[in-house]
Amino acid sequence: MGTQLGLQDLIVHHGENFNSPSSRPPRMLSLPPNLIEQEERVRAYWMAEILDNVSTVGASWNLSLVSVTESDILPCSDEVWTMNGYSDVQPPNPSISFTNYVEFVSGPLYQVQKFMQQKFDLNSLPERSLWQNKCQELDEILSTWRANLTDSLCKASQSRPGDVARAGFGTNMTLVRCLANFAVISMYQRVSIHNSQHTNHIWPHAAQRCLDAVGDTCETVRCIADKELSWFCPFIICSVFTAARFLLAYAAFTGNEAPPSVDLLIYSMRLLSQRWPLAKRLAKVLRAAALEYKATASTYTIPLQFYNLEYSTIDIDEALKAWYMNSES
């Protein structure tokens, strides 16, 4: 859609090829007449790209995702965009801007997605080792990116890192934290538990990193007021679901009780379901799983793929959707 509207030409080529033949579908928009409309189109383009990137985290098939290059036009600062009555909502100060969010989604998160589109035979020890090493490498990239962002917020606000983590500093920071945790769990969950005909075992590092990411997701949503969470950006839904799913599937595998934090995640999903149909569907799945995860697999009512962590959230979506539709009929 962004290409058809001519938005990609504006962002990538700075509009320089508007007077030349295009191999792309016909453009529906002319050059923006002023800077305000140009900024609107810049933000519309990146919002579309963010939607593509965020909604496909964990996908194991090839996707035409976009990463940021040095020449791309990025959104202006939120402070500038909200001046002169352009917006009635002033961003918190300090805050991370929409540009920071774009850079995260099309930078570190993009690298995770490109990696997960590669084919690995996790039953092969050499390929499994390659996957584990790459997970740790990308995990370090995500952690470094977040740490640098937190440091910049600390300097701007003269706060300590713990205060920044608790305060959140706006929707963009909340989304970055949750998406980073979503990416960590999506990478590591496939190798956290290994089931085979001969052995079942846990890779402690992967399991612990998933649990760390779940804990940070819980801390993040705990900082959001109930009313605000019920109207929050839908990009957070899969992050919350993936965190809760890992706790329940991990508890089912180990035979242990799921930690109390799973209740917070299910409650958060229930709040999100007040507005978003996807959250309503996934909340029902989580409630069912919370009631049955301690039972034997033969008695599960929800699809078995829910408990198989080799499947990502997007992999099991159709199976969960079919289960939900049947349960509602």
Description:
The chain is an all-alpha fold. It has a domain at about 1-95. It is about 60% helix and about 0% strand. It has 14 helices and two strands. The protein has helices at about 5-15, 35-55, 80, 100-105, 110-115, 125-155, 160-165, 170-190, 205-220, 225-230, 235-255, 260-270, 275-290, 315-329, and strands at about 195, 200. A two-stranded antiparallel ribbon has the order 1-2. Strand 1 and strand 2 form a beta hairpin. The longest helix is centred in the middle third of the chain and has 33 residues, at about 125-155. It is globular. The relative contact order is 0.08.
Low-pLDDT regions: 88-94
- Tell me roughly what share of residues is in helical segments: 55-70%
> What is the count of DSSP helices, taking H or I runs of 4+ residues?
14
Query: How many strands in all?
Result: 2
Q: Which strand order do you get reading across the main beta sheet?
A: 1-2
Report the sheet-strand fraction: under 5%
Sum up the overall morphology in one term.
Answer: globular
Mean pLDDT, as a whole number?
Answer: 82
Question: What Rg, in angstroms, do the CA atoms define?
Answer: 21 Å
Instruction: Please describe the biggest sheet, giving its number of strands, its sense, and whether it closes into a barrel.
Output: 2 strands, antiparallel
User: Span from first to last CA?
Assistant: 35 Å
Would you tell me the structural class of the helices and strands?
A: mainly alpha
SSE order, one letter for each helix or strand? HHHHHHHHEEHHHHHH
GO molecular function: DNA-binding transcription factor activity, RNA polymerase II-specific; metal ion binding
Subcellular location: Nucleus
Main location: nucleus
Protein name: Transcription factor domain-containing protein
